[in-house]
Structures are given as C-alpha cells and as structure tokens.
Hints:
- The protein is 44% helix and 6% strand.
- It is built from four helices and two strands, in the order H-H-E-E-H-H.
- The protein has helices at 28-42, 51-75, 89-107, 121-125, and strands at residues 78-81, 84-87.
- The chain has a two-stranded antiparallel sheet.
- Strand 1 (78-81) and strand 2 form a beta hairpin.
- Helix 2 runs antiparallel to helix 3 (89-107).
- 12% of the residues are buried.
Amino acid sequence: MEKDEKNFGSGEYPNTGRYYPAKKNQTYNWGKNWRIFCTEITQRDNFKEGHLKAVEILCDLLEEYETLTKFVKENGYSFQGPEGPKPYPEISIRNKISQNIVQYCKLLDIKLSKDKPNASEEEENIWDGPSISAAPTISAASTLY
C-alpha cells in the first residue's frame, strides 16, 4: 500500500456510510491509527460521532508516546546532574501518557492485545494454568523436619 501522507486514514467506514477524514497535517502513523480505530468504532451498534473525538485524542496520545519513546531510545533514561544521575522529565511524561492511553482504550472499549481476536475458547484456556482443585496438595504429614 502506498503512503498518502495527506489523507491517509480518510474514507468511508462500514455500517455508517459516512466519511470521517483524518485531521490534516498529521503523520502517516497518526492517520494509520485513525483508520484502524475508526474502523473498529464505527462498526459498533452504539456508535455516535462523539466517539471520534476520543479516537482523535487517543491517536494524539499514541503519536506523543512514540515521539517520547524515540527520545528515550536516543538519549537513555537519565542524565548526569550535579548531584548524580537524574531521570529525564520525558520519562515521567511518557509514563503518564501510557496511563492515559490505557484509560482511553478502556473508555472506547478497545483491547490492545497481540492475541488473535477469534481465538477459540480452548486456545485461550491454555494461558489460564491449572485450576486450584487440580493443584497438588501438601499435607502436614509429608513435610520434612
């Protein structure tokens, strides 16, 4: 797919027949996030155009998080101050943005996971581990003194 820097993310979304363009002058990744989240949000039965503002804020947060992550990769987590090493202020800002991303994802009921969305129940239970009733028990008589 060719990158259209100006209007990436624009288009008609399923179930609405409406056109929700991405904001102008945004980066390719911002438009990509906009398209992904708008596609998911507009397919819902309870979709309202007001949800798009929350998607816009989420895309802004993700863009800022990527910028700060790039800064951390280039500069590290701390610098040498007169009293010893100190963390960059960007670290705490990045952590706050990360928390806001999680909050907006919960608000929009978006699950950011690497698992397949259509995984069968059996596949999901692999990660649950053994149930408590299946765990071995240790009696007082079996302990060593």
